[in-house]
Amino acid sequence: MAGSALRRLMAEYKQLTLNPPEGIIAGPINEENFFEWEALITGPEGTCFEGGVFPAKLIFPPDYPLSPPKMQFTCEMFHPNIYADGRVCISILHAPGDDPMGYESSAERWSPVQSVEKILLSVVSMLAEPNDESGANVDAAKMWREDRLEFERIAQKLVKKTLGIPI
Amino acid sequence: MPMVFLDRLPVPSLRAYTSISIAILSCSIYYAAQIVKDPGWRNNHPNSLVAAVGNATDNNASAIVDSRTLGVHMRELFACMVQEPGCIWTLINMAYCVLILVGKSIQKLVFGELRVSERQHLKDKFWNFVFYKFIFVFGVLNVQYMDEVVLWCAWFTALGFLSLLSQLCKDRFEYLSFSPTTPGWSHVRLLGLLTAILALSSFMLLMCVAAGFFFVSFNTFAFMAAECILLGVRTIHVMLRYAIHLYDTRGAGNTSPRSWDKRGPLAYYTELTSELTILAVDFLHHVHMLLWSNIFLSMASLVICMQLRYLFHEIQRRITKHRNYLAVLSHMEQNYPMASQEELAENSDNCAICWEKMETARKLPCGHLFHNSCLQSWLEQDTSCPTCRLALSMQANHRENAPEIPSESPTPARRNDNHFFHFDGSRYVSWLPSFSVEVTHNRIRGDISALAHTNSQLDAMARQVQQLFPYYPRNVILEDLRGTRSIEITIENILDSRLLPPHHVIEEPEAEPATTTQTTTAHILPIPLVQDTLDPRLDIPAADSGEEPSNLGGRFSKSSMERERILQRRKEHMLLTARRKYFERHPHHNESDTSLDVSSPVNLNNVTPRISLSHN
Ligand SMILES: [Zn+2]
Ligand SMILES: [Zn+2]
């Protein structure tokens, strides 16, 4: 099982290295374990996360791409679709079988034709347009709806933190 | 487990243990030598050993006298030590010490430093082994005499040693299979060790057969042989998986065409056969133990029953999974033709599942092509086209019968839901075995499963209904299914127009290809983020990276070390660019004291290690 997963991951890594999408870098931290990657995601322009470089880790299952990887931000995040521990809650990362929120149509969920690149692009679009129906972080969702200015202030603080700029 | 407690006992270091053992051994040798010197001892023990040695020396007249007398002396010493109860224990202790040393050196030679999970696994396996063998020796066999216990201990020590090594090999193999860049040398060492284990276990099996013929009862022989066979098959299983893995990864990274379709079923059937053999032998072994230990209500039989129950479920699960495999296979063969050469030529894309070139492919009704084995493994867990999400009915041939719920997925949580009448004996009396009977009638199956529907099952059912009534919106069907929990009743509802017919045709997002994610995200990034400005004032400190930034993106090195380094540099470069851009956008920061940070390598070091450290 792990053999074909390895070949596919290698192909994806190669593609992401040769034709990297704007503002995204991803690859295995240590090639002794090719099933654990780190990704850097640049906050999308024109949003409150603009300019930040957010590190996240991706853990792939041995039967990848049949099952989706798990993704977790390793920096502090404040976002309606990101849990307090950094785990990302977007439909593309959910296997077709499980549906924790009970509202996603299976069209948006994981399938083997998805890829690391598509996941990361989805995460970028999630950063730009939070889905406040999914309650991964209820406080953030509430603030996003009711007090956008405060939300943006917190986001800018996080951006500075990821860049290592003193606040 | 009480074994956890034992685990916390202070264990002396290996070095201390070895020296203590050697010291005790020398003491007892000295003691034995003193006894042997005593002429009275030889008269009291005119044993056959000494006589036999004497005989041998007569025949062998030309032997060197010194070594002969030394040999005789050693034999006498040994004979004496075997007879002294104190000495025999030091000998046994020494044997264990040597065994541990051997194990340690194998570990050093083959595995190097053990990883934390391997060590934990090993410990668990060890105590588990000790626990079950204790139950076996005292609960099942009811061994009464000390020398029998010692013999069984010796046997299980050898067996346990090999089992632990085999387990370690398995863990290490699984770890190595996560990396594309393992040096060939570690594969050779691991495979060598596996071969050695296999050879030793066959040797032990031969010993069993010999013992079965000459010394022990048939029952004892069967017990011993079962354990050897288990060990042997487990080792073979690991070796086969290893071989398949090496074949799979051979040339990972290049784009060499592969014969996937031949490999798929072969790999599957080796896996299936080994797993079923292991489970069946283990099951029979435990049944045998249960029948042999004729005291049915003892602790031992309880433990064995629990083990039996677990094994039974495993076998059942494996068979269900295999049935699913066969169903998917025959379904694919009946419904999805192999793509013709023209179709393959027309479709220049790679297989969307494994991203590799397709020499042969199967064609789904929607026109998408996949490798046979790739499609097979996907359809085992889901029933839709990976690319366009077209729902594929697994019962396409006789759809007018109640469409079946595609819940054949082998996830353990769901496996007992609907297909079996399940009798859980342990709920009444703990040693009563559980058993399950398959219910083949379609209607009953639907009813039994009524309570077990999860949302995903509802979703799948809705998909089935929608195939029959494509213009009914999904949410209306889902709503009805939530109430009826049965495909048939919902279909009847629709036919009897109890369900609201749609006034306007609602386009389901399902019908759209999965490319929507891409189109929505594409416009989020209208401006390229990383742009190399020519303004020298804002240039990043190039001395630190040593390479042109443009070089970083466009190369995929063959060496893993270089790839890691380039990735690290690209990350640093991205962070620096982002920081520079940030200061461009917020000029007030630039004027303040932090402006120095941009070019200060100290600050860079503050940032990047944090990113990499957060992974450990
Ligand atoms: Zn394929
Ligand atoms: Zn399709």
UniProtKB/TrEMBL annotation, chain A:
An individual GO BP term: ERAD pathway
Catalytic reactions on record: S-ubiquitinyl-[E1 ubiquitin-activating enzyme]-L-cysteine + [E2 ubiquitin-conjugating enzyme]-L-cysteine = [E1 ubiquitin-activating enzyme]-L-cysteine + S-ubiquitinyl-[E2 ubiquitin-conjugating enzyme]-L-cysteine
InterPro entries: Ub_conjugating_enzyme, UBC, UBQ-conjugating_AS, UBQ-conjugating_enzyme/RWD
GO molecular function: ATP binding; ubiquitin conjugating enzyme activity
A Pfam family of this chain: UQ_con
Active-site residues annotated for this sequence: C89 (glycyl thioester intermediate)
Keyword Nucleotide-binding recorded: yes
E.C. designation(s): 2.3.2.23
Keywords for the protein's UniProt record, in alphabetical order: ATP-binding, Nucleotide-binding, Transferase, Ubl conjugation pathway
UniProt keyword Transferase present: yes
Domain UBC core: 4-164
EC supergroup of this enzyme: transferase
Lineage top rank: taxon: Eukaryota
Function: Accepts ubiquitin from the E1 complex and catalyzes its covalent attachment to other proteins. In vitro catalyzes 'Lys-48'-linked polyubiquitination. Involved in endoplasmic reticulum-associated degradation (ERAD). Required for sterol-induced ubiquitination of 3-hydroxy-3-methylglutaryl coenzyme A reductase and its subsequent proteasomal degradation.
SUBUNIT field: Interacts with AUP1 (via C-terminus); the interaction recruits UBE2G2 to lipid droplets. Interacts with ubiquitin ligases AMFR/gp78 and RNF139/TRC8; recruitment to lipid droplets by AUP1 facilitates interaction of UBE2G2 with AMFR and RNF139, leading to sterol-induced ubiquitination of 3-hydroxy-3-methylglutaryl coenzyme A reductase and its subsequent proteasomal degradation.
Protein family (similarity comment): Belongs to the ubiquitin-conjugating enzyme family.
Protein's recorded name: Ubiquitin-conjugating enzyme E2 G2
Native source species: Neodiprion lecontei (Redheaded pine sawfly)
From TrEMBL, chain B:
CDD domains: CUE_AMFR (cd14421), RING-H2_AMFR (cd16455)
Subcellular location, principal: membrane
Keywords from the named record: Membrane, Metal-binding, Transferase, Transmembrane, Transmembrane helix, Zinc, Zinc-finger
Transmembrane stretches, start-end: 12-33, 88-106, 126-143, 149-169, 190-215, 221-244, 290-312
Annotated RING-type domain residues: 351-389
Ranges of compositional bias, category Polar residues: 593-616
Subcellular location: Membrane
Coiled-coil region(s): none
InterPro entries named in the record: CUE (IPR003892), TPR_SYVN1_N (IPR057992), Znf_RING (IPR001841), Znf_RING/FYVE/PHD (IPR013083)
Stretches for region Disordered: 540-563, 584-616
CUE domain sequence ranges: 457-499
This protein's pathway: Protein modification; protein ubiquitination
Membrane topology reported for the UniProt record: Multi-pass membrane protein
Protein name: E3 ubiquitin-protein ligase AMFR isoform X1
Organism: Neodiprion lecontei
Lineage, opening ranks: Eukaryota, Metazoa, Ecdysozoa, Arthropoda, Hexapoda
